[in-house]
Amino acid sequence: MKILYSWLIEYAPYQGTPQQLGDILTDIGLSVESLTQIGAEYHGVVVGKVITCEKVAGSDHLSLCTVDVGEGGILPIVCGAPNVAAGQTVAAAVPGAVLPGGFEITERKLRGVLSRGMICSERELGLSDQHKGILVLPEDCVLGTKVQQYLGGVDWLFDLEVTFNRPDCLCHIGVAREICAKLGLELRLSMPAERSATGIANQTSDWVTVTIEDGVRAPRYTARIVKGVTVGASPDWMQKRLKAVGIRPISNVVDVTNYVMMEMGHPLHAFDYHLVKDGKIVVRHASKGEKFTTLDNKEHKLSVDDLLIADSEKGIALAGVMGGLNSEIKETTKDVLIECAVFSPAGIRITSRDRGIQTESSRRFERGVDPEMTVAAATRAAELIHQLAGGEILEGVVDANPTPWKQLEIAIRSKRVNAVLATDLTTEQMRGYLGALSCKQSELASDKKTGDCTWKVYPPSWRRDLEREIDLIEEIIRMHGYNEVGMATTSRVVLEPDVQRERERHVTDAIKNALASLGLREAVCWSLISSGDAEAFKDGTEGAKVLNPLSDDLSRLRTSLAPGLLRAVERNINAGQHDIRLFEWGKCFYLKDSEIFEGLKLGIVLTGKIRPESYADKARALVLGDSRGIVEQFGDRMRLKAWSSKSNELPEYLAVGAGIKLGEDGTAAGVFGQIASETAMHFGIDIPVWYIEFDGEQLLRRAGESRRYIPLPRFPAATRDLAFFVDESIEAGEVANCLRRIDSAILESLDLFDVYAGKGIEPGKKSLAFHLSFRSNERTLADGEVDALITRMVKVAAESTGAELRSI
Amino acid sequence: MNISEELGKIRRAFEAATEADFTAEELGKLRVAYLGRKGIVADLFDRIRDVPADERKEFGRVLNELKLFVTARIEEHEATMRSKKPKENVDVTLPGIVGFQGGLHPLTIILNEITDVFRGMGFTVETGPEAELISYNFDKLNTPFWHPARDLTDTFYLDTPARDKLLRTETSPVQIRVMERQKPPIRIIAPGRVYRSDKPDATHSPIFMQVEGLYVDKGVSFADLKGTVLAFYRGLFGPHVKTRFRPHFFPFTEPSAEVDMTCIFCKGSGCRLCKQSGWLEMGGSGMVDPNVFLGVGIDPEEYSGWAFGLGIERIAILKFGVDDIRLFYENDIRFLRQFG
Q: What's CA A197's distance to the chain center, in Å?
């Protein structure tokens, strides 16, 4: 909300600087978003009259003028402006004057001609960018006086953040009221008394009738008439104020309605009385599909939820939102009907939203206006119109008020106030603050038993946000000062931590740290993705859609972390980064039986080389085993019994890969593998990329089981290497599993250390070499014992996989 | 050739082999050949049983001698080899050879710092759904039905048949979930993602992170709120910071306050980053509105409480000097590398 300092202090007799006032406003909840100086500072510029004006010989544009500056005498001034002429009243900067920007005027010679001053343009006085010619002042300006009094001096513009609950502060008087309450000043109002109380017959009711069909949507409608006006431009001072607070001047009548809104906070509308058929105002719902053209020449198709101001045959304004083109004030308007009404905030919101119109008026109505101000505001507008556009104000108002405002009564307890705030305010202080805010208050009732004082508070009509005791408590502390309350610390109770929550937090940290230690960087992607990415990424789940997305880019909730991570890979590759190892821990969402479910997932994406290349060796490219290696190492770190199995149902987005299972029961908990090339291509990636995904909820449940010490071996291990030839189609895991199946308590480990096919090997075959380690916890193993086991292994391997022993 | 002669021959062959120059690798092979599990010496020991009984003792002695000799000679060579200085010139200025470094996201780092400070003050970390019921995000937080936050232009609603969910606009619904479940005293923080229909630019992200704090007990006052918030910001930014409370409006708190903190760049004297005010806007706070308590079945006459919320990106931006909020979500490695 833009508030002009000079306008504000008309009502609040404030003496300090605008900057100090800014701090006070911030302190009482009207945060100053900006405070800017408008109109530049200058002095020594006086009103002068050009007596003579002659061209300077030898120059095509300079003129020598003689300028009468009153007491300062008559000065010769050389002027370069094309519009300068004898007889003009001008702004003359005399020697010693300082113009905006610190430019000082001295006597000097131009083309050998002495110039004792300067005739100023608007730009030279910081008034506007206008520099085509000198500023010509009205003839009635008094010679020799400072031009500031005609042009306005330096002013300050506050931009205040007015919260939604304080529509009463969306005007200068409202803000002034707050300042006066805080500083104990008396609000200076020059508002007119109600003229209808003079006993003269009400003339307005002869001209206008008002019918309200829905007293909930339109609790009150006040009309007032000024007849015989002359529509024209409003005076400079009013235009300047309106422009400063962001309103475009239109005509004296319309400007008055806006001026009163900025002054008193109540939106008004002016109709051309003769365009209101039969002088009948009907406040009614629009009929379905009813067409209506607003002031801005836009046609709207209305619904029954829209409230219209109509005459006896047609709509003439979209209630509280915008007037109609068919009844607007024109140059030809003679008689003006002023509307000052109250509309329900909810209703205005509906129309404003459905018709896509936001105006200064709708902004105020949807927050709530003062229901007791309609007559005063309409009267104030009538008087200003009378002043600026002439005409005659008809006596009386027509005031339809089907749903009168009801005064609220709120009980307040002094003990409660001090308990909530941790203050020791006296009852007098509390009553003083509330009184300053125009609340009426009952006598005190004190309860002798509890020592508590209670009383009743009646908030003013413009404070509809004050409904409960707690609202009054806020007002008290706002006036007393938020920063006057002390600081306590909440160390009174020790709370037992929630073990389950603590564990989850701890495991989450551990998961992230484990992944970081494996050389992965944590990524955070948006959880909304584009419809294209959602459709290209097929993981077999149904995703949820946003009903009202900002754009298609953010229209679907992710079902997997992969789309976001793959986009991150793409972005990095485009930025010249080719070795990418990222993980994300975050929520994914899916639809099942029309319900949205959400759960944590862990996603890991890998591409590029196994390690940064160096002068010492060339790093190889990643292979599938590297992604599996991450699964295994991560499982180890987290004490997860993670193992992978051949998965018959790999998601479509993986070209090759396997499922990840957790625990002894082998619950499926994720997948790993290489992203299918068509999926990768969709995400703009044309190099191999691997992806691992874990079900985060399962990780949380199972990870980080307590670690138990396993005694270190006391007896030596016996190691053997075994190599087999097998058919190419036989998987290493199959051979390994069959070797492991030789149920032996002494097989400590079995690791594949070589896979080879090609030269020296029969075509269609490959060689697999395993490193085996045997150990007992009770004794040193005898060679024979181990050899016997090896023999059995070789036999079993041969029987079940056709493996042929290559070497021992 | 009898076995003793054979021993002599083996010894001579070994001596010959160790006379010549050899590499460390060749020495290793030699060790395996002679002393390995299936090496020459082991093989000879296996053959003791073939030696006639009367010669066995002598053979054993000679064989042991051979073993000791071979062992001693190989170890001697090994020692020599170890003591040899590398011949080539080593350039120690060559850069270190490193692997890929992992790390945490800057927002995680900040969230961990925030969590640490709160945990130190006795707060437990809570979470809640991001696809939240409309009633938890608005109604139960005392948001009037006409409040602009409910607008389609401000909030993402979800396309389900029931039309009862949205993407939470703040972490405050977690307050409700906790208060419905648990009796006071309650002292929690709730970090997480929130969603608002803001076009992304340098200072706005439609998805961002918040932390919510809630403390409910008998006799909790506005002074407790102020004290805790100050302690929190000091814990995060250092003991010199001050806080300022400004009246504000939030539907779920009354009185409500915006919290400002001393500008950390100019220490309060006024600079470009704090718009010359000396203060940085840090977050919203207030006393839990009695209507919120009534909705979750807590008697506002018996209990009182405060809540406060802040943006994690905001803290990260201040702490790291990041100038564009979108960087947090682009996951450019050159950006991530600077923090983790």
A: 48
